[in-house]
């Protein structure tokens, strides 16, 4: 328990700091900087917040899909459930997505070895593979539509479209992040390129794993 | 060096956490005023049908008023004010950070909330079908806003604590915001999924909820012919069960903080209080999960739900014990802020006790009538949380605006509101038990129903009085702002946490680029000497100097 003190003295540190100014230890964990553009440009905040941010974001996205998955499992027992035959193209798409994760890692390895050109090459290949996956998903939908299976056909088709659609939307965000990292000039940025690449890679691999889960759910849960 | 005064654009669209926090609070203030007027309309309609044209035109209009009242209060007051409003304003200050982890995200979630408010309000003026679609879209927008806000809170607490601000030294308010952010993260993503599914059903004809065969398998009490389909109830339960805890958790933190400060005593069993707050978050989430399970799969699984709902009593009871023990033999400063905090405890006990009836599935069958449930959740969630918000506003008003609110007007407002809300919601419990109990025969029920009419009138009159009493608050609020009286010091309450170590109102740059160092816990008070408190950032040598 602290001993007796007076208010004036307890407020002394405030005054002291304002007058003295100096002597302040550097910020631990970094500072956001608020509106102060000059400050923001000068001091790079700790990159840890981006790692934590992407981890927390992944939890939220996971929860979104888990809610849909639990609805899927609950709903699947219904008498009106007509299973969707998964188009074979999805397997190819899956291979493309897994390959994109692999090229992403290769890109990061190049970056770690300061091979900027190699990094750029593999990074763009990853982005291209992501786009190919998305196009493949659209083609898969068109195949289903050609078979007369629409979003509104039956509960199973509704779930098929919402799972693949929601995943595609999230992956589109990932493609956006890949393009951002590829085009951004990091000399002016708050984070280094390797941090941005690593944070993006976490999200991308998560999207990859999530797709495998969804595919397994759609395939096994027929 | 003083920075130039920013233009209106950069002030409205500022990423600064204090501006964003205040904007949330203004949003809540507007919503609560409109929400209260709507509740008066509803009460007047219940007592004297035919007097309110809007409510009388059709049952749908009446339901729309109820929905607007509920949405405004739940989303934009109970969720927005304690967490997003006070949280955004105070969290970085209390942990010694200059800003939130992602200031732009903070701004984005504010404006998504504004868009959601605009959507929900305009849905009231549209046709029924369009209105429902817009409402769902707005609820989805609000979910996204709440998710972004929660993400920001989590990262800020984890990453931006200043030197020495270890987890045990964090103020209980910060703990509550943190746990609540985790809970929000988990439940709002589910609400978002629910909204997306329901919207897809309505707009694109998908079959997540609306299949006839699925509805036929549901128990009859869930699907009433001619009523809005089961979707509404499903959506409601998706969200509402956990939303109670989302609204209450930050209030628990605020109340704990204020009671320790005004009783001039450390929080009784602070570590266990933090554990209890985590417990409320955890069990709150599970109760919600089981409720969804129950509506989706097996509606006759009340035992698990019942046990879980009752187990909430353990952490809630512990929090209560801690508040009372902290007050016990404290040198209590009875100002308006503390009065509202004690009012919160009182309402929490009253509402919590009636909750026991509802958590037991056998008792709830007798007690569960609309009036009883309305009385229960308004006491424990609506009014109690509002009292916590008011307590917080009186407490942090100097930090926000650099002046105090008028204490005399504040106390008048407190007593009028305190008496008013009990007069409104206690008789509602009786109404629920008396007039609609399934235990009575039809003949008895008719007799009691006529007696119920007079109770209903009392409730309506009390509602009108309580809502009118808020004029005192509005008067106090704006007169304090327009004619501010200088504060005697930056720390008028002699509080210990970091936000009071800077000027009041808080400067644009929180700590002027020199983040404070924290040396001790957040509640180091000792009740012997008037000014006996140790700010978290007071260096030990300064403290020792004084002692010697």
CATH homologous superfamily caption of chain A: Cytochrome c oxidase, subunit III, four-helix bundle
The helix/strand series of chain A, from N terminus to C terminus, equals HHHHHHHH
Q: Give the amount of beta strand of chain B, in percent.
A: under 5%
Number of strands of chain A: 0
Strand content of chain A: under 5%
Assembly state here? heterodimer
Radius of gyration of chain A: 25 Å
Spatial shape of chain A: elongated
Give a quick account of the main beta sheet of chain A: strands, pairing sense, barrel closure.
none
Share of helix of chain A, binned: over 70%
- Tell me roughly what share of residues is in helical segments of chain B: over 70%
CATH topology grouping of chain A: Four Helix Bundle (Hemerythrin (Met), subunit A)
H/E series of chain B? HHHHHHHHHHHHHHHHHH
* Low-pLDDT residue spans of chain A: 1-42
Query: What's the CATH architecture of chain A?
Result: Up-down Bundle
Distance between the termini of chain A: 65 Å
Mean pLDDT of chain B, nearest integer?
85
Structural class of chain B: mainly alpha
List the helices and strands and how they pair.
The complex is a heterodimer of chains A (222) and B (548).
Chain A: H1 7-10, H2 12-20, H3 37-42, H4 48-75, H5 89-112, H6 116-146, H7 155-183, H8 193-220
Helix pairs in contact in A: 4-7, 4-8, 5-6, 5-8, 6-7, 7-8
Chain B: H1 8-12, H2 17-47, H3 53-56, H4 59-95, H5 103-123, H6 128-159, H7 172-204, H8 212-216, H9 230-263, H10 270-296, H11 302-311, H12 313-327, H13 336-359, H14 361-367, H15 370-401, H16 407-435, H17 442-482, H18 540-547
